[in-house]
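Page 42, continued from yesterday. The earlier attempt failed because a stray header line got pasted into the input along with the sequence. Redoing it now with the clean sequence only.
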Amino acid sequence: MSASNSQVKYSAAEIFKVIKDFDLAPEKIRAIENAPLDSPSLVVAGAGSGKTELLSVRVLWLVANGFARPEQILGLTFTKKAATELSKRIFEALLKLRQTNFWPEDLEYEFVAPTIMTYNAFSNQIFRTNSLALGYESESTLLSEAAAFQLAREVCVRFGSNISGSLSDLELNLDSLVQKVLELSQALSDNGQDAASVRESIEATASHLGLLPKKLGQLVDSRFGYIEDIVEGLKPTPLIAELAELFQQEKKKRSLVDYSDQVALAYRAVSTIDQAASDVRENFSQVMLDEYQDTSVLQTKLLSTLFTKTSVFAVGDPNQSIYGWRGASSSNLDQFAHDFGSAKHFSLQTSWRNPTKVLDMANRISAPLLKPASYEKVSTASRVIPVQLVAKDDAIPGTTDFVFEQTIEAEADAVARWLKPATSAGKSCAVLMRKRSAMALFVEKLQQQGIEVEVVGLGGLLELPEIVDLVSALKVVQRADSGTELIRLLTGARWRVGVKDIDRLFVIARKLSGPRQEGVFREELTLVEALDLVLNEKLELLGEFSKESLSRLQDAAILFQNLRSSMALPLSDFVRVCAEELWLDIELWANPKRKNPMARLQSFYEIVAGFGTGSGSALLGQFLNWLDYAAKKERFEIPRTNPGAGVVQVLTVHAAKGLEWDFVAIPNLVEDDFPSKPRSVSGWLTGAELPFPLRGDASSLPAFNIENATIQSQAKAAVDEFKADNKEHQLREELRLIYVAVTRSREALLLSGSYWKPANSGSRKPSRFIVELASGLFEFPDLESAENPLDLEPRVQTWPLEPIGTGQRGAVVAAAESVQAASAKLSRVSETDLKASDLHQEIDLLLREQDDRIKSLSEVDLPVRIPASKFKEFINDLPGQAGRYLRPVPTQPYRATKSGTAFHSWVEDFLVAEVDHSTTDILDLAEIFKTSRFKGLEPADVEVEINLTRGLNTFVCKLDAVFQVGDRFEIVDWKTGAAPKDKDEEQQMILQLALYRFAYSELRGIPLEQIDVCFYFVGEDLELRPEQVPSPNELIQMWEKLFV
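This time it went through. C-alpha cells are written below.
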C-alpha cells in the first residue's frame, strides 16, 4: 500500500528543505511519496537525473514519517565508491534531520545508521554467516582476479589432459583457454548450471543436427560442410565446462571464493536455510536497489527470494546496461514485476548534468533502444521503456564539436588542442575510449600540449612507454624467447644499440646454434641467450662488433644477469629494482612534459603489490602470464580519485559510467572501433559460451531455432538468422555504450575520428554513431588519399636516440661547459707541495684517525629515512634520539604493539576485501570499529607507503587509510592506544598527520586544502581532528632548525 494522507506527517518537499535550499523536482516527489510501503516499485531514471538524491530523500521521508527506523533500511549499489557516497550523504542528512522538528519523538538521538553496501558485500555477509551450514570454512579467502587466473591456469595444466585428448586439438593457447575457463565458470555460477547440463544441451543440439538429411526422404549418409562446421564449433564447450567445474571444486578444496561464488552461495543459503532468509527479512523493512539494470540473473534470484512482494524501491536505466560481459542482464528491468510482484512504475526524465545540445544527441543516438529488439520475446506489457531525457529549466546550451581528420595522429593532435584551453581554465576533462589500443598515442599528444594526464586502469597503463619498457625488461629476465622486448630495450635511449648490431647479434645466435640438417632437431639460441654470450671474451664472433657497440651490449648483459641474481627479492621489490636499474625513474623525472612524472609507475607498483607477496623467482612468471591475460580482457576499472583541476583522465567508456566531467572527448569514432567489431556473431555455437537456453535471461537473447528444421539447409537458415540476431544484439550493446559516453559531459563534448591509422591498407569509415550525431551540424572532409599517408611518407628518426631528448640537450651541454670552465679556474696544487716527509705524513694520519675515533664516540650519523611517527620525537628530543642511534638497545615488544599490528591487518582486510577475520585479542576493537562511521566507507587508499624526500632526508609515511567523498579526502590514522592527555601532547602527535597530508598531496597531486586528517582512537571510539595542521613550510623549517 502507498502511504495515505492521514499517515504522512511531512511531505518530501518539506523534508528536502532540511538539506537543500532549493525545491525538490516534482517527479522525485511523486516517486518518493507514492511508492508503496509494502510492495515493490521501479523508478526508471535517465542519465544524470539524480538517483543518489532520490534515494537519500526517500530515506529521510521514511524516517521522518515513522515508516521505518534508520536501521531498518537497506541500500545496495554496485561500487564501493557509490556505496560510500550514498552512505555519507544519507548519514549527514539524518544528522541534519535530527536537529529539526521532523525527527520522530520515539527515535533515539544516537541512532543506528541505515545499512548501505555493495551487492557483493551483501552477498558475502549472508555467505559468511551461513558458511558452515553450506560446507565452507567461515574464513574462506576472497579470490582476487589475479589469484583466480593463477588457479585456473594451474587447473588447466594439471587436469587438461585428463578431460579429453581432443582438448589439445583446440586452436587455443594456454592463456586463452584459461580465459574461457574463467568466463564459463562465472556463467555457470551466475545461472545455476553445471557441466552436465552444458554437455546435455550441446549433445542434444549436435544430435539433432546429425539426424538431418540433405533432402526430405533421403537417408542421412552425408553432411554439407556447414553442418560439420556447426558441430565442430560446439565440441569445445562441454570440455571447457568440465575444466570450469574442476576450477570450482579446486576453489572449494582450498577455501577460496570469488565474487560470483559469494552470490551463488548466498542464494543457496537463503533458498535452503529458513533461518538465513528470515534473519535478513527481520532486519530490513525497506529495501533500495541502485543501478538495478546491472544486476546479474543470480543476484536477482537472491534478492527476489528475500524481498518478493515487500517494499523494494529499485532504480535503474535500461539505456545504461553496459556490463553484459560480466554477467549483468539488460532484461532484469523488464522482469522486475515478475521477480518481485506487481510493481508501481515511476520515471525521472530531467537531466541535472547535461547541457541541452548534449541531451539532444543522447536522445537521438538512443532512439533505436525505445523499440524492442527483433528477437526479444518479452511481452509489450512488461517491457520497461527507457526515458527520453529533458533539460532542467536553467540548463546551458553547451558546446558540441566534431573533428574528422585524415590520420589518427592528426586527430589526437586536434583532441589535445581542444582540451588545452579547458585544462588551463581548471576544468575537469576526460578522453573516453572504446578500446585501449590507441590510448598511448592520445596520451602522448596531450602531454606534448603540456597537459597533465591520468590513465585509469591496468589496461591503459600497459600501453604507456615507461610501463612497456618495464614489462619488456621483466620478460627478458624471465623468458628466453623475449627477443622483441630485448630489441626494444637495446635500441632505446639507455643503450642506443644500432640496427646493424642487432642484426649481428641475431647472426651470432644463428651461427652458434649450428648448421641446419634435414631431419635433425636443432635447438636454436634466442636473442636473449645470445646477449649473455657477449660476456665471453674468448668468443671470436664478437670481433664483428665495434668496441663501443660491444661495450654497450656487455653493459646490458651484465644488467640482466644482475637482475636475474636478484629474483629472490619479493616481487614488488624486484620490479622496483628493475625500474631503477633501467633508469626509468631518472628518465621520467628528466622529462619536462611530465607534471607528475612517477604517477603511472607508482600505479603499476601498486598493481604488482596486489598480485602477491612471494619472491620474484616464484611469482614473476605467473605475474607476466596474468598481465598478458589482463591486457586482452574487458575490465571494470574506475578512477580511485576525482580528477584534479586541469588534469585529463583517459579511460574506457565502461569505466566512465556514474562519473561526469566538464569537458569530454570521445575519439576514434570509426566503424569497427566504435561501434566495436564483434569477435564473433555465432554466440554460443562457437567460443565455448554457456548455451543461451541455459541462461536465466534467455527470453531477451537471440534464439537458435532448429527444433522445426527437417533438412540441413533449414538448419543453415537458422544459423544465419541466429548470427543476424546476435549482430543486432551486439549493436544494441554499443548503442548503450555511446549513450553512456555522451551523457558524461557537463559543458562541452567533442566527437572525433580519422580515416587512417598506421599499417592500415584500407581507409576507415566514419562510425555510424558520429554520422548520425553530426547530421546537419558537420560536413565530413573528403578522403584525400587512396593510400595510407602514414605509410607513404617515410618517417625520419635521428639515430641513435638522444637519451636526454633533443630539446634538453642544449641546456645540459651548456651547464656542463660552465662546470668545466669553473673547474679550470681553481688553483692547482704544485708538485713540490706534495713532497712531504713520509714519517710526518704517517704521524698526521694516525693522529687524525685517533681524533676521528674520539669524535665518533660522541657523534652519530642520523638515518636518511625517518619514519613519520618518529618525527615528533626528533623535534622534541634530538639528543635523546641521537643517543638511541649511537647506542641502540633492543626493546621488548609491548603486548599493545602486537595487538595494534593485528588490528591494522584486520582493518585492511575488512575495508578492502570485506573479510572479517578478527581474532580474540582484537575482538573488542573490531566490534567498536564496526559501529564507527568508517565501517561503510570505501577507502581511496589503504596501507599506502609514501617516501617524501626533502633535502638529505626521506620521511617514510605509512598511511592507514584515505577516504574520498566528493572532491575532499580524509586521511585517518588508526590508534589502538590511549588518546593524548593534554593539548601539548596532542599538538606533537599532529605533526605525524601533517607529514601524511604533505606526502599524500605530493603523491596524488591534490591541493592541501582538500585534504582533512584525523586520528581514530578505536578503544575509546574517539576521533581527534586538529583545529590547525602545520603547513609543509612549517614542517621543513622545524626540521632544518635542528641542524643549524
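Notes: The mean pLDDT is 84.
Reminder to self: strip header lines before submitting.
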